[in-house]
Amino acid sequence: MALTVNEIVQLLQGRGQQQYGGEAISQLDHALQCADLAERAGENAETVVSALLHDLGHLLGDERPAVATSRPASPPHDDLHQYIALPFLRGVFPAAVLSPICLHVDAKRYLCATQPGYAEALSPASVASLALQGGPFDAAQAEAFMRLPFASEAVRLRLYDDQAKVVGLRTPTLDHFTTVMEVACSHNV
């Protein structure tokens, strides 16, 4: 079932108050910072919305009920958050929003493989998730990735994602980006 823009806003306002992984900011602050960076870089509405919603799967994934078990805790695993949100956004937003969201984890793997110094500059939380996500691409994987539609947008999104972890940074409000989401929705024809 697809979410409406209003339901997305409610999710960001509610569950978005949770800490963003191992970072020192909330999910909502991270989303707003990422979208602000994209908008200030002159990205189109679709890429700005991708930046805003790229980690929505973390918030939706938290909706899954906990299962009581007597087994020991399982080792850390990749939550595949880049895919979780897609069924909830499909039909609402065009591929120009959905594809960069889907590809932003692989964009990190691509950048680690192709950009000297990129992996070393990742935050500790991002380094830990990289290991769970399969590590850097090899040369063939990196080349194949860049042939995918919206790969360039996903790489730019990833770079905004990496910078969007500043405690106390002022950004436009969620209301501002709600208007941008509505613009992107209108392009889904």
Biggest sheet features: none
Structural category is mainly alpha
Unreliable stretches: 63-75
Count of helical stretches? 12
Q: What gap, in angstroms, lies between the N and C termini?
A: 18 Å
Total strands: 0
Oligomer: single chain
Q: Rough shape?
A: globular
How much of the residues is beta strand, in percent?
under 5%
* H/E element order: HHHHHHHHHHHH
Range of helix content: 55-70%
Mean pLDDT: 88
What value does the Rg take, in angstroms? 16 Å
Characterise this structure.
This protein is globular. It is mostly helical and 189 residues long. It has helices at residues 5-14, 27-40, 45-53, 56-61, 81-84, 86-89, 95-114, 118-121, 124-132, 139-146, 151-163, 174-186.
Give me a quick take on this structure.
The chain has 12 helices and no strands.
What is the element layout, followed by pairings?
Layout lengths: L4 H10 L12 H14 L4 H9 L2 H6 L19 H4 L1 H4 L5 H20 L3 H4 L2 H9 L6 H8 L4 H13 L10 H13 L3
Helix pairs in contact: 1-12, 2-3, 2-11, 3-7, 3-12, 7-10, 7-11
List keywords for this structure.
single chain, 189 residues, 12 helices, 60% helix
